[in-house]
């Protein structure tokens, strides 16, 4: 399963294949996603507010 | 073997890149990392060049032991002539970049000239290429690393990058890698910006060969056990360097409101246990068994969400005590902002605290600050000024040039309030009760600095016999005393020079922990990794050689004894608060000058701090510049 | 103390840092002891109340504070636990953690 663990609420959630961003369905925190392997997403960081 | 390791010469003006092996002779004299970088800087830089001109050179060097699985061996040394001080520019960075550069086939890079337009370098398995970086220009330090990974289509690429502060040639812009690691001091990011060099990336699948791998692995295990058994390491892996704050703030050794107080009253929120509210785990650098970095999430507030690493004790001072902000969240936001923009946390905090005191004293007002009310503890002003400095906007543009230029622009006696040495801000520690620490910040070759020669263990009041065993002669156990303290600083300078040359973490030698690896363990590791044989005293000579060639560089640039000086406030204003031992303290001028005299003698330098002829001959420095490479 | 000198009760502020703070759950406590008692007595008393980490503050053989800890009285680091305490003395208990 292509899952990451939310850094905020610590729940696991799945990420659509190849997605650049994903939101945790539980706490709504948005993350930037990278793919070290095709089936392995990794959280790069939070999507920050632009200012 | 180590003799196959290479140095690459990259000329950004011409695009020419060549590489050569690093001769054994140079390894024996300078080991690697900071050692070889200092040799190269002295040999290849024309005296008196403008640090921001294309004639300045930028050096990147991995430590001799880089890649061993112990002692945080992923350190990388970055050097150039400093745009902050005009003296040695040198900063050390952890993380994972250095081992990756080694795996890519290079130990040292010497970058000269200036690219016509933004570029980045990519070192990959024996090759170095210059890539266009137009699309990276304007990006922050996190985005830049992400985009390079996307460019190269490899998540394992590690990069040294600059942020907008480096692009804007803020004099104290830093170089960053990963989420947290920074080569903060002396403005190496500014030098990269001046060369239109946005990043240096590395990806390698080559081998790092060691002479006696099995024995080395066993010995590394012993080293890791030695470190993790210390109470210091257990505390660091839980609270990070924030643990230091409890000790120093409770005693009254921490400068507050720039330099007006030596303890932050109502500073409870900055105590290390309060990081538990934000921390999601601890992380570490390559080859580290301690893991002293908080990884934190800030969920609320106008700057949320923030996912970051840190803050170090340094940032706690820079954006906490020095500017009189007593909220952990303020520090966490400011820490993230400077990391994102690529600014040295300490220089930024030091300059803002100075400006706040000038504002309080009426030396500057809102006309000077373009309407900013620089009031103590105002976090919004702090965040605004950080942003202004990085973008060279408003009053931030004055501060962006560092103390030397800002003092000359503001004038009106502002120099007196600047807590800087050789033009570089000092840490937020208040050294008035601790003469050894005061001497160390003065003699540092890169300007006020606690990582060049600080005898931190002086604060532990260790038994006399133990101190004599470490330092080789009697030194006082009393941290308020002056006796023997010059020896402590001298000895620590040699130890840290060698630590930076082998590329291990200072925290994992005699810095915070007394029973940590030092000369004997270093010589054993070098022998197992490279087959080079040193005695303890020969290794100390290597430290002496590195420190002395740095001194020679500074002398050549016009620095001398007069620059090894404390700000006048250390002699004139007594500490107003703290535990009884720390209260009412100032540095005794005669005592200080005597320490400095003794310190020069220990190095084999004359009364003015110039190395004596016999010292140069003993260290083989009488033939410099020798241009071995 | 000379024979017959009157024993008084003195109060010592004990500032708790690092793991000592974690164990007790407080930043500061006040200990009352007889004026003829030494630092060692106070540390022993704390050891009985709070357990192992506090007991380790005194080396049982040498009756000194081991180098991995810092115990200071009014900011001055002490290793010899035979020193006498005075009323309102401030004791700080922590571990080796320098740098700044």
Mean pLDDT over the full residue set of chain A: 86
Task: Work out the radius of gyration of chain A.
Answer: 10 Å
- N-to-C SSE string of chain C, H for helix and E for strand: EHEHHEEE
Q: How is the largest sheet of chain C built, in terms of strand order? A: 2-1-5-3-4
The unreliable regions of chain A are none
| CATH fold category name of chain C | Ubiquitin-like (UB roll)
- Helix content class of chain C: 10-25%
Q: What gap, in angstroms, lies between the N and C termini of chain A?
A: 35 Å
Tally the helices of chain A: what do you get?
A: 0
Largest sheet properties of chain A: 3 strands, antiparallel
Largest sheet: spatial strand order of chain A: 3-4-5
Tally of discrete structural domains of chain A? 1
Kindly describe this structure.
The complex is a heterotrimer of chains A (51), B (629) and C (100). Chain A has 51 residues and is an all-beta fold. In chain A, 0% of the residues lie in helices and 47% in strands. Chain A has one domain (3-46). Chain A has no helices and five strands. Chain B has 629 residues and is an alpha+beta fold. Chain B folds into three domains: 2-203, Aldehyde Ferredoxin Oxidoreductase,  A, domain 1, CATH 3.60.9.10; 240-414, Aldehyde Ferredoxin Oxidoreductase Protein, subunit A, domain 2, CATH 1.10.569.10; 435-623, Aldehyde Ferredoxin Oxidoreductase Protein, subunit A, domain 3 (Orthogonal Bundle), CATH 1.10.599. Helix content of chain B is 38%, strand content 13%. In chain B, the strands form five sheets. In chain B, strands 2-1-6-3-4-5 form a six-stranded mixed beta sheet, with helices on both faces. Chain B has a four-stranded mixed beta sheet with strand order 8-7-12-9. Chain C has helices spanning 18-24, 39-50, 52-55; strands spanning 9-16, 28-34, 69-73, 76-77, 90-95. The model of chain C has no long low-confidence stretch (mean pLDDT 91). In chain C, 23% of the residues lie in helices and 28% in strands. Chain C has a five-stranded mixed beta sheet. The longest helix of chain C has 12 residues, at 39-50. Chain C has a single domain (9-95), classed as Ubiquitin-like (UB roll) (Roll). At the B-C interface, helix 8, helix 9 and helix 10 of B face helix 1, strand 3, strand 4 and strand 5 of C.
């Amino acid at each position: 399963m292509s899952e990451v663990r939310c850094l905020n609420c610590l729940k696991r959630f799945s990420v659509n294949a190849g997605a650049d961003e994903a939101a945790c369905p539980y706490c709504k925190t948005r993350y930037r996603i990278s793919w070290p392997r095709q089936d392995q997403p990794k959280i790069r960081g939070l999507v920050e507010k632009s200012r | 073997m180590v003799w196959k390791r290479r140095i690459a010469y990259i000329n950004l003006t011409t695009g020419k890149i060549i590489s050569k092996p690093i001769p054994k002779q140079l390894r024996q004299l300078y080991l690697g990392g900071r050692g070889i970088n200092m040799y190269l800087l002295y040999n290849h830089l024309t005296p008196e060049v403008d640090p921001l001109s294309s004639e300045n050179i930028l050096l990147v060097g991995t430590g001799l032991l880089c890649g061993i699985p112990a002692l945080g061996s992923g350190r990388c040394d970055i050097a150039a002539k400093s745009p902050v001080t005009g003296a040695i520019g040198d900063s050390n960075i952890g993380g994972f970049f250095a081992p990756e550069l080694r795996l890519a086939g290079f130990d040292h890079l010497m970058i000269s000239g200036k690219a016509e337009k933004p570029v980045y370098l990519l070192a990959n398995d024996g090759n170095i290429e210059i890539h266009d970086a137009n699309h990276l220009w304007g990006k922050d330090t996190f985005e830049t690393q992400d985009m390079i990974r996307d460019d190269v289509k490899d998540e394992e690429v590690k990069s040294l990058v600059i942020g907008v502060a480096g692009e804007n040639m803020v004099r104290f812009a830093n170089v960053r890698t990963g989420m947290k690691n920074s080569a903060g001091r002396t403005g190496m990011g500014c030098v990269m910006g001046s060369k239109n060099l946005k990043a240096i990336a590395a990806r390698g699948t080559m081998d790092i060969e060691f002479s006696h791998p099995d024995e080395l692995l066993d010995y590394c295990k012993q080293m890791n056990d030695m470190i993790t058994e210390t109470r210091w390491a257990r505390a660091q892996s839980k609270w990070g360097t924030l643990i230091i704050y409890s000790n120093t703030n409770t005693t009254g050794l921490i400068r507050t409101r720039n330099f007006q107080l030596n303890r932050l009253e109502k500073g409870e929120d900055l105590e290390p246990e309060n990081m538990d509210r934000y921390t999601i785990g601890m992380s570490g650098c390559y080859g580290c068994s301690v893991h002293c970095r908080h990884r934190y999430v800030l969920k609320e507030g106008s700057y949320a969400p923030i996912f970051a690493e840190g803050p170090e004790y340094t940032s706690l001072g820079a954006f906490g005590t020095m500017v009189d902000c007593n909220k952990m969240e303020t520090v966490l936001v400011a820490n993230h902002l400077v990391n994102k923009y690529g600014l040295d946390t300490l220089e930024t905090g030091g300059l803002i605290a100075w400006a706040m005191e000038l504002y309080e004293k009426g030396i500057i007002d809102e006309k000077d600050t373009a309407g900013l009310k620089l009031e103590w503890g105002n976090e919004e002003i702090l965040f605004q000024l950080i942003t202004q400095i990085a973008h060279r906007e408003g009053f931030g543009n004055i501060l962006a040039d560092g103390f030397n230029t800002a003092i000359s622009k503001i004038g009106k006696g502002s120099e007196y309030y600047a807590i800087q040495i050789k033009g570089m801000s000092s840490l937020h520690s208040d050294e008035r009760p601790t003469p050894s620490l005061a001497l160390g910040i003065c003699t540092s070759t890169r300007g006020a600095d606690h990582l060049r020669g600080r005898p931190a263990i002086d604060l532990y009041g260790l038994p006399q016999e133990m101190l004599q065993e470490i330092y080789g002669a009697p030194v006082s156990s009393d941290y308020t005393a002056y006796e023997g303290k010059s020896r402590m600083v001298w000895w620590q300078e040699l130890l840290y020079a060698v630590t930076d040359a082998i590329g291990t973490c200072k925290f994992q030698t005699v810095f915070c922990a007394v029973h940590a690896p030092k000369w004997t363990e270093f010589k054993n590791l070098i022998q197992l990794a490279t087959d080079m044989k040193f005695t303890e005293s020969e290794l100390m000579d290597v430290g002496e050689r590195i420190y002395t060639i740095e001194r020679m560089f500074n002398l050549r640039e016009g620095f001398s004894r007069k620059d090894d000086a404390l700000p006048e406030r250390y002699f004139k204003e007594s500490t107003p608060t703290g535990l009884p031992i720390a209260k009412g303290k100032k540095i005794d001028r005669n005592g200080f000058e005597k320490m400095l005299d003794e310190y020069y003698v220990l190095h084999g330098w004359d009364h003015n701090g110039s190395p004596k002829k016999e010292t140069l001959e003993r260290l083989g420095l009488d033939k410099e510049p020798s241009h071995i490479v | 103390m000379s024979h017959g000198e009157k024993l008084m009760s003195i109060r010592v502020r004990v500032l708790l840092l690092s793991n000592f703070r974690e164990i007790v759950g407080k930043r500061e406590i006040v200990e009352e002891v007889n004026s003829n008692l030494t630092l060692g007595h106070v540390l022993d008393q704390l050891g009985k109340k709070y357990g192992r980490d506090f007991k380790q503050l005194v080396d049982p053989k040498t009756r000194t504070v081991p180098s991995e800890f810092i115990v200071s009285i009014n900011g001055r680091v002490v290793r010899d636990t035979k020193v006498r305490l005075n009323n309102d003395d401030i004791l700080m208990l922590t571990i080796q953690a320098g740098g700044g």
